[in-house]
Specification:
- The chain is α/β, with parallel strands linked by helices.
- The chain is built from 10 helices and 8 strands.
- It has a domain of about 150 residues: 2-Layer Sandwich (Nucleotidyltransferase, domain 5), CATH 3.30.420.
- It is about 35% helix and about 15% strand.
- The strands form 2 sheets. Strands 3-2-1-4-7-8 form a 6-stranded mixed beta sheet, with helices on both faces.
- A hairpin with a 5-residue loop joins strand 2 and strand 3.
- The radius of gyration is 21 Å and the shape is globular.
Length: about 290
């Protein structure tokens, strides 16, 4: 809020409109403000995500079920899918809809590695964690590369590598591949070996990312950069990440979720009570 002359009430109204589907130019027309002014407010709000994420990762959790999925939009112009920077990886806690990861970029190993490094930080603070994904094997493979344990059994040969104790990864393969000759893929499987002491209590009917799919639909409604059949796509990758950071803060710490009836940060016990816009805007992110 340093050196900002506009009242907080106006800033709050504009930011709420931006996270409810209003595009940048439309918000400027509706509230009678300059484009650079709104960009300044959003750039000031973006670093708040990093401060709140660090605080969230300092908490301890008994158990979590996290769903992983991707979201896609065009950036600046229509490019081939493999070259577009509009791929967004999302990791969301199922019970309280708390979004842990929401970063965009090209659909390459760097993007998935960034999300899995956040997941490793969550694993260190959680005793029992489950990651569920629809058809994307890369989640489990990259997680296994950066976070695994070596089990020594005193037997000849190399010791086995497994996921850490308490970590479960399940993949739901889409399609039966009945037209492909040879062995069929299992519908539900663990892409990597898990620790022998990990309790296997996942019901196969619960292996899905339906909650995150619903959140993706809400994101397309509330962020104009993800809306289809319009010209309001993101103009640049930093601009897309800026609005994603703003949406992350509003979704996790301000807006009461329609289904759970609580703010996700309160539901996951990161905060004891609902914060206000004034609390968020007055945070020192230096």
């Amino acid at each position: 809020m340093e050196l900002l002359r506009k009242p907080i009430s106006l800033i709050v109204k504009v930011l709420i409109a931006r996270t409810e589907g209003t595009s940048l130019n439309a918000a400027c027309r509706i509230f009678g403000i300059a484009k650079n002014t709104l960009l300044l407010w959003e750039n000031r709000m973006s670093p708040v995500k990093d401060a709140l994420l660090i605080y969230s990762l300092s908490q301890s959790f008994i158990s979590q079920v996290i769903e992983g999925d991707e979201l896609y939009t065009k950036v600046y112009e229509n490019k081939p899918v493999e070259d577009c920077e509009g791929w967004t990886v999302m990791l969301m806690e199922r019970a309280n809809r708390f979004i842990w990861a929401m970063s965009c970029g090209e659909k390459d190993e760097k993007l998935f590695l960034n999300a899995m490094e956040k997941l490793v930080s969550i694993i260190r603070q959680t005793k029992d964690i489950t990651l569920l994904t629809d058809g994307e094997r890369r989640y489990g493979n990259i997680l296994f590369d950066i976070c695994h344990e070596i089990i020594k059994t005193s037997l000849p040969g190399r010791p086995k590598k497994t996921l850490p104790e308490g970590v479960k990864v399940r993949l739901k393969n889409k399609g039966s591949r009945s037209h492909v000759p040879g062995r069929k893929r299992k519908k539900y499987e663990a892409p990597q070996k898990e620790h022998p002491d990990t309790i296997q209590d996942i019901n196969q009917e619960e292996i899905h990312a339906n909650h995150l799919e619903g959140q993706n639909a809400a994101t397309r409604r509330k962020l104009s950069a993800y809306r289809r059949k319009t010209n309001t796509y993101a103009k640049s990758k930093p601009g897309l990440q800026r609005v994603l950071n703003l949406y992350w803060v509003v979704h996790n710490f301000i807006r009461i979720h329609f289904t759970t009836k609580v703010v996700p940060a309160v539901g996951v016990n990161i905060l004891a009570s609902n914060p206000t816009w004034e609390n968020i805007l007055m945070l020192d992110t230096c």
